[in-house]
């Protein structure tokens, strides 16, 4: 056992080194979809595909045979879809349906992040039932079994629903954190739950029957195999598929390990026990009946697992070195055609479906099947079929390439060119003002500077009216003049002119105009700001005519899907914009705070210490000012509390100055009264002496 482990690690490191030195041909990685095929016992006819939109996720129902979209459900309030599954909903017991027992409708169970489950009917294009109240976290998986619905949330809680009443019947708490996968047996008695490990539970007895170690990461694919006698699992960031024995006395180790060259995204199992896996490199790997019984020590087995019995690779006809990735695959469920595989390629916006046969003449999988297909180069413009191309080649299309178009613009150009030729003949070039005067195209041409003699340059410099633009637009569409059409599209900033021009456009030119604008929108996405006003006004003003065109859906569905593909990143851009706005707000607040602090510091520094204006001395006269430098009586930066209680606490500066000046006045008045009394006493004493004499 120890030796086997050492050899496995050594082989893995060698393989990793080989992969590191190998240069991949296709650098585009395939992303994993949230999707589900319909048809429990027959070939799939529809694909339920979840795509992200501007207001939450959207569920698209795509026809497998034609590749067109049948219906679409957009989650309300930005709801995020986490799981989907096909099933049948029993019909309501009305008086009319009682006469038709067994009436049911095909629905898609949608597990939301909020914990609710929606029953969406593609035929009605509406939600017919809502199951809620049992899950408090996101629904990671939903499975239909025995006319019942089973759901699993990420906390490991399994709920069995009565879909006719919409009420839960049983609940099972497995306490498995980050649960992701759910399987239900055909008798609805056993459930298999997986996160990074796998557990089988008896839902009636609420007991665990068996457990497997699983993988080192979260398991994203979990399927039954060999009539529910085996399990097949694949995990994130793992390039191995594990086959487990699901019998009661089986060992807790994989029966077989299937190896690929890159991370596995999808896994499917056929009724005969064959396994296929779609890897991140866009290649399909297949193993013939590997899940039925354990293999012997064949040549295809090594220390890190069984290599694939068959490999399917699709190459581009334009560049044989480029691999067109396979996005999704599924085995056929029809008896006798189990070697047929439905392959999905292209893109999520416009998927392409194709059925391939993996078996050779002996019934074994071909070792390597390499196909050549044309790449999907244009998502908005519908490609023509071979019959349409042959019919177009036989027809002689009308062309006016040699015709002369007469209107105000071309007439002005002709006169300007004629004046230039005449000036050249006499070796005298006309001035710019002369050329403008010679361009008599109406009052709008006053003050226009011409730097080119081409019609597009002149028309771009002129403010043409709506009537003129309509004539120019019709002529450009009639003669396939791309330069003149660009002249019309350059007026997108004038909203009133765009509306009036589109409104007066003849209906016969509406669809050709839309096709021209769609093509520019797809080839140069940066021109969306210029082209969208024309598209919006054309669809709004000519909607009554467009709905009457039989082939409108295939011609406009590509544009709609292209817009949806562009909006997939809009939600992330909104989050980034919010974070940048929050950071910018914090920067502005910080800058404002620093400016206020600096302003307060400058104001504090600009305030000088208060100095007295006049100082009176006791020995000086009342009206004589001291010439000595003033002695400050009180300073603003000195506290009066340290003087031992001067009795001026709580008094303002002006009041202190007033009180000081009042005391000085009282002292001066008392000094004057004293001097008067002394003079009076001297006079009295003098009079007394005179009397004695």
Question: Which keywords apply here?
Answer:
693 residues; alpha+beta; 5-stranded mixed beta sheet; 4-stranded antiparallel beta sheet; 26% strand; disordered N terminus; disordered C terminus
Question: What does this entry show, briefly?
Answer:
By secondary structure, the protein is of the alpha+beta class.
Describe the structure.
With 693 residues, the chain is an alpha+beta fold. The chain is 31% helix and 26% strand. The protein contains 14 helices and 30 strands. A hairpin with a 2-residue loop joins strand 24 and strand 25 (305-306). The protein starts with a helix and ends with a helix. The relative contact order is 0.05. Mean pLDDT is 76; it is low at 1-27, 93-99, 296-303, 440-456, 635-654, 656-661 and 681-693.
Q: Major sheet, described briefly?
A: 5 strands, mixed
SS strand fraction: 25-35%
Oligomer: single chain
Q: Give the total of beta strands.
A: 30
Distance between the termini: 154 Å
Radius of gyration: 45 Å
Mean pLDDT: 76
Low-confidence stretches: 1-27, 93-99, 296-303, 440-456, 635-654, 656-661, 681-693
Helix content: 25-40%
Categorize the overall geometry.
extended
Instruction: Report the structural category.
Output: alpha+beta
Spatial ordering of strands, largest sheet:
21-22-23-26-30
Number of helices: 14
């Amino acid at each position: 056992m120890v030796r086997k482990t050492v050899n496995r690690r050594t082989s893995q490191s060698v393989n990793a080194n080989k992969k590191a030195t190998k240069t991949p041909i296709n650098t585009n990685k395939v992303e994993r979809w949230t999707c589900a095929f319909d048809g429990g016992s027959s070939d799939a006819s529809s694909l339920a595909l979840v795509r992200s939109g501007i207001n939450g996720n959207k569920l698209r129902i795509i026809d497998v045979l034609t590749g067109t979209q049948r219906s679409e459900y957009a989650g309300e309030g930005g709801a995020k879809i986490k799981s989907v599954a096909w099933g049948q909903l029993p019909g309501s017991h009305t008086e009319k349906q009682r006469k038709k027992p067994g009436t049911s409708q095909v629905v898609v169970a949608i597990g939301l992040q909020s914990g609710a489950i929606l029953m969406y009917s593609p035929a009605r294009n509406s939600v017919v039932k809502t199951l809620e109240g049992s899950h408090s976290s996101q629904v990671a998986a939903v499975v239909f079994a025995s006319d019942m619905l089973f759901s699993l949330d990420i906390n490991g809680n399994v709920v069995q629903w009565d879909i006719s009443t919409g009420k839960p019947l049983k609940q099972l708490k497995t306490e498995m954190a980050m649960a992701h996968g759910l399987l239900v047996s055909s008798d609805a008695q056993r459930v298999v739950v997986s996160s990074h490990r796998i557990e089988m539970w008896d839902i009636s007895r609420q007991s665990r029957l068996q457990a497997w170690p699983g993988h080192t990461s979260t398991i994203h694919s979990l399927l039954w195999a060999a009539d529910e006698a085996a399990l097949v699992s694949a995990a994130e960031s793992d390039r191995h598929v594990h086959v487990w024995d699901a019998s009661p006395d089986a060992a807790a180790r994989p029966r077989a390990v299937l190896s690929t060259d890159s991370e596995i995204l999808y896994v499917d199992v056929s009724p005969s026990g064959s396994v296929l896996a779609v890897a991140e490199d866009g290649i399909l790997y297949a193993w013939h009946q590997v899940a039925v019984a354990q293999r012997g020590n064949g040549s295809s087995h090594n220390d890190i697992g069984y290599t694939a019995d068959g490999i399917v690779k699709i190459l581009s006809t334009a560049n044989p070195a480029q691999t067109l990735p396979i996005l999704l695959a599924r085995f056929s469920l029809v008896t006798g055609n189990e070697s047929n595989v439905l392959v999905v390629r292209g893109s999520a916006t416009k998927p392409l479906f194709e059925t391939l046969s993996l078996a050779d003449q002996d019934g074994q999988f071909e070792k390597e099947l390499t196909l050549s297909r044309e790449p999907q180069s244009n998502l908005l413009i519908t490609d023509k079929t071979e019959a349409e191309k042959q019919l177009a080649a036989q027809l002689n299309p009308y062309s006016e390439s040699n015709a002369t178009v007469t209107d105000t613009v071309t007439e002005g150009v002709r006169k300007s060119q004629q004046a230039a030729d005449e000036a050249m003949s006499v070796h005298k070039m006309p001035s710019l003002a002369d050329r403008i005067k010679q361009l008599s195209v109406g009052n709008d041409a006053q003050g226009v500077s011409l730097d080119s003699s081409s019609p597009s340059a002149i028309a771009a410099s002129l403010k043409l009216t709506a009537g003129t633009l309509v004539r120019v637009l019709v002529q450009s569409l009639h003669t396939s003049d791309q330069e003149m059409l660009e002249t019309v599209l350059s007026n997108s900033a004038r909203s009133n002119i765009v509306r009036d021009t589109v409104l007066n456009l003849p209906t016969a030119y509406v669809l050709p105009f839309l096709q021209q604008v769609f093509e520019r929108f797809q080839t140069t996405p940066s021109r969306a700001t210029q082209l969208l006003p024309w598209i919006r006004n054309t669809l709004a003003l000519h909607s009554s005519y467009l709905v009457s065109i039989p082939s409108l859906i295939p011609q406009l569905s590509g544009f709609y899907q292209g817009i949806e593909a562009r909006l997939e990143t809009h939600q992330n851009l909104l989050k980034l914009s919010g974070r940048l706005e929050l950071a910018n707000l914090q920067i502005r607040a910080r800058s404002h705070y620093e400016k206020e602090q600096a302003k307060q510091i400058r104001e504090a520094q600009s305030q000088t210490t208060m100095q007295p204006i006049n100082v009176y001395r006791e020995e000086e006269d009342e009206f004589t000012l001291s010439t000595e430098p003033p002695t400050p009586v009180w300073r603003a930066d000195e506290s009066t509390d340290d003087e031992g209680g001067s009795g001026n606490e709580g008094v303002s500066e002006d009041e202190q100055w007033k009180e000081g000046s009042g005391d000085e006045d009282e002292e001066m008045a008392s000094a004057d009264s004293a001097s008067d009394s002394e003079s009076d006493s001297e006079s009295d004493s003098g009079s007394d002496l005179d009397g004695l004499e």
